[in-house]
Amino acid sequence: MAGTDDAAGRVIAGRYWLMRSLGAGGMGRVWLAHDQELECEVALKELAMPAELSERDRSARIARARGEARHSARLRNNPHVVTVYDLVVDNGLPWIVMEYVPGARDLEAVVGESGPLSPAETARIGLALVDALAAGHELGILHRDVKPSNVLLTTPEPQGPHGQGLTRALLSDYGISLQQDADEPRLTTASGIIGTPGFLAPERARGSAPTPASDLFSLGSTLYFSVEGHGPFDRSSAVATLAALLTEEPTPPRRAGNLAPVLLKLLSKEPANRLSADDAALLFRQLTSEPCGCRKPHP
């Protein structure tokens, strides 16, 4: 992966001029870029390819990028999913061309810098995210890594319909998403578990196949973090957190108010006892008067 200094000014695929780095993680870096063909700004996701990567790991990262682009592109009409425009290849590696959302920060950073959000704002975010997940589930696409760092929040608009600023919430990073019943690579880790401890559904941690219900558990954990400022099973280490996830009930919410029963239903250990996407959307809608422009639930 290129450094932040030496890659700025580089043109990718003969079209996208890299302006500056927007952020980086273990799997890659996201750049602000200028589309020289359409004269607009976009975001480009670059894959991290350390020299020590084995050929197997290199192939897995490329498969992940292609899967993210393909699955996100199928959801491009949903207002709560970061839009993917294209997948281009430069020097043999794929780059994902995405919507650039000015001023967006991820939920983990927002809570870390400004503290937990209110129950009403968290319910608004929940309504947007459950809409995005349900749209994917209807197409057979599971996200598998819903967590605060994969939720982008925009700067509120000055005036909403009720005289208050509105935050747009978007679900990002379909990089380990999976289309059920599809003949495609299933990405795994050395432990065989895909996901993030503390936001992973317990049945997933036990090795069961992912389902829509496991995405909804991760949604509940993410919204719990939003309103409480920590995860429902947070402990001093990843191993202890995973053990708590498997054997203990969530730490009782203290700030969630009327949102608490919804979160706890999403965090049920038994998938069959969790709220469905439509039921969760109905409850989120009851907790906020703000419209979200979401899809209509099936009758």
Task: Describe the fold and architecture.
Residues 16-299 form the Protein kinase domain. This is non-specific serine/threonine protein kinase. Its EC number is 2.7.11.1. InterPro entries: Kinase-like_dom_sf, Prot_kinase_dom, Protein_kinase_ATP_BS, Ser/Thr_kinase_AS. With 299 residues, the protein is α+β, with helices and mostly antiparallel strands. The protein has two domains: 11-98, Phosphorylase Kinase, domain 1 (2-Layer Sandwich); 105-286, Transferase(Phosphotransferase), domain 1 (Orthogonal Bundle). It has helices at 55-74, 107-114, 119-138, 202-205, 212-228, 238-247, 260-266, 277-286, and strands spanning 11-12, 16-25, 28-35, 40-47, 84-90, 93-98, 105-106, 141-142, 151-153, 169-171, 178-179. The strands form three sheets. Strands 1-2-3-4-6-5 form a six-stranded antiparallel β-sheet, covered by helices on one side. A three-stranded antiparallel β-sheet has the order 7-9-10. Strands 8-11 form a two-stranded antiparallel ribbon. A hairpin with a 2-residue loop joins strand 5 and strand 6 (93-98). The radius of gyration is 19 Å and the shape is globular.
